[in-house]
Amino acid sequence: MAEIRVFYDREANAVTVWFGDPRQEHICEETGDEVILMKDKLGHVIGFEKLNYSLAETEQWKVAFETSAIQLG
């Protein structure tokens, strides 16, 4: 089963999402708009980080995950 990990660091004002093994991180690439891609040795994106992301102290944080199947034919 695939696992997605989402971390919100209120002190650093950052949210990090991993959809691969963080231990496989080999290189990071800044894409602009304060987004950093984490890649493995083969160059596959295994996670990303959004900098300067913050919530008010009173806001609740919700994560929704959706999948969709593409039907051909």
Secondary structure blueprint with pairings:
Elements: E1 5-9, E2 14-18, E3 27-32, E4 35-39, E5 45-51
Antiparallel strand pairs: 1-2, 2-5, 3-4, 4-5
Query: Beta-sheet strand percentage?
Result: 35-45%
Q: What's the number of helices? A: 0
Which structural category fits the helices and strands?
mainly beta
How many β-strands, per DSSP?
5
Cα distance, first to last residue? Answer: 28 Å
Gyration radius (Cα, Å) is: 15 Å
Order of helices and strands: EEEEE
Shape by Cα distribution? globular
Could you report the average pLDDT, rounded to the nearest whole number? 87
* Number of separate structural domains: 1
Lateral strand order in the biggest sheet: 1-2-5-4-3
Q: How much helix is in the residues?
A: under 10%
Residue stretches low in confidence (pLDDT < 50, at least 5 long) are: none
Largest sheet: 5 strands, antiparallel
What does this structure look like?
There is one protein chain. With about 70 residues, the protein is mainly β. The chain has one domain (about 1-73). Helices cover about 0% and strands about 40% of the residues. It has no helices and five strands. The chain has strands at about 5-10, 15-20, 25-30, 35-40, 45-50. The protein has a five-stranded antiparallel beta sheet with strand order 1-2-5-4-3, with no helix packed on it. A hairpin with a 4-residue loop joins strand 1 and strand 2. The protein is globular and about 40 Å long. It starts with a strand and ends in a 22-residue tail after the last strand.
